[in-house]
Amino acid sequence: MTKSDIYDVLYNEASRLLKAENPCNIREENGKMVCNGHLVSCCYGCKHLGPKGCTVEALSCKLWLCREVGSNPINAIIVVSLDSLRRAGSAMGVNTDPYGKGFRTSKEESLAS
Ligand code: SF4
Ligand code: SF4
Q1: Buried-most residue among 11, 16, 37, 79 (CB within 10 A)?
Q2: Spatial separation of the C-alpha atoms in residues 100 and 90, rounded to whole Å
Q3: How remote is the CA of residue 61 from the centroid of ligand 1, in Å?
Q4: What domain range includes position 93?
Q5: Model confidence, pTM
Q6: What are 42-60's pLDDT values in tens digits?
Q7: Residue of 42, 65, 104, 108 to mutate, ligand 2, most atoms within 8 A of C-beta
Q8: Per-residue pLDDT tens for 66-82?
Q9: Ligand 1 pocket mutation pick from 68, 75, 104 by most atoms within 8 angstroms of CB
């Protein structure tokens, strides 16, 4: 399996978990985009953010949840699941660090770093 393949597997699984559990619940309210976190969206100001959301496959972002959502006991299972994917990717040499090299990185940027 190449790093690209591993990246895809992790990204697809994280996407599936987030879609099923919907911990962020990003939605429109009174004409504004809101979510379950303190910020309007953790994507604010990112170069990859388009009018309809993220325009790239950013694995490290998929494996990260803000404190408001991550510390809510109702999200305990998805927090553990995402963390497990993050550690698995890291062990296989895929950049899953949301605070370091993986900060707001697309697949192409991540594999090139
Ligand atoms: S991680 Fe937190 S701030 Fe980011 S979209 Fe989800 S709820 Fe909102
Ligand atoms: S790269 Fe990350 S922070 Fe940027 S728009 Fe995509 S999900 Fe949001």
Answers
A1: 11
A2: 12
A3: 10
A4: 3-23+56-112
A5: 0.93
A6: 898 999 999 888 999 999 9
A7: 104
A8: 999 999 999 999 999 99
A9: 68
